[in-house]
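Slide 14.
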Amino acid sequence: MVAASPRIQQRTFGRTTGGEEVTCFTVHGSGGLTLSVLDYGAVVQSLFAPDLHGRMADVVLGYDDLAGYERDRFFIGAVIGRYAGRIGGAAFTLDGRRYALSANDPPNHLHGGIRGFGSVVWRARPFEDAESAGVVLEHSSPDGDEGYPGSLDVRVTYTVSDANVLSVDYLATADRPTPVNLTQHAYFNLAGEGSGDVLGHELTVHARSYTPLDARLLPTGAIAPVEGTPLDFRAPRRIGDRIGGEHEQLRIGGGYDHNFVLDGGGGALRPAARLRDPGSGRVLEVLTTEPGMQLYTGNFLDAIGKGGHRYGPRAGVCLETQHFPDSPNQPAFPSTILRPGDEFRSRTEFRFSVC
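Slide 15: predicted structure.
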């Protein structure tokens, strides 16, 4: 391992099947939070956080080698783009013109397509200042990439603070109108990756409403109240308390795979969710400028991860801050269209503590 600074180390993680070298950057915060990020997919490869007694554990799912990420089918730890979530029928109409996208989740387009942002090597550089350190990653998506119009330049900045906060800042610009919806697809297990399922984790989601799914896992276009449904996490509830219930939305999703309409709308940084593992005492608070958050409980996970650990269903939970799925086909949803001269900016904070 070659030391770039006392707080940041970098090492070669492997080479892609196309021969590109992949680098792993490890960033240390003085509070204990330690992030490893790859320039492949801007992947969060590991994230170590202290428990109630100061013991460290890796709280995100992942793989030990690049081959694991290249064959991954679950978007583990990756930045998702150009569009997080599904676009119905793998097509949308923009300014009177119809655009066909890759249908990697037939008949829909999912998480950016066959080779989305999680499957490319980004340009990366580390940085540090008095109270934080991190990595800036950049990617240029060409016109026509997976069917999207226009060239898109994207920058993602991971910052680890001494207060045990991981901040993720997104910036994008385009030379033609195009949909943009970026998120981080980490699977969290606050007891430690490979330790079992997350059904005992207590979850709070700051949302009075959600976007119901149809049988194709697409939003119906409605915004419905969570009250009286198993999607009501306004007060802390164990993830597993109602996940096996007979509610139609749980049946459609195979568990939780739903976009929540966060209280307060988008724009200002505000609370989105709180996750707590009673056993370790670890607490994760999620704050975002995004209007929505996808709760996904890893309903179909089936992978061999770090240390040979088997990741089955519910081995981790995703808290994907975002705009709403299928927004290009849902005019009532907040717009995801980025136009030339404008900037897409978004910030999400993952704040770790103990209780």
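Speaker note: The chain has a mean pLDDT of 96.
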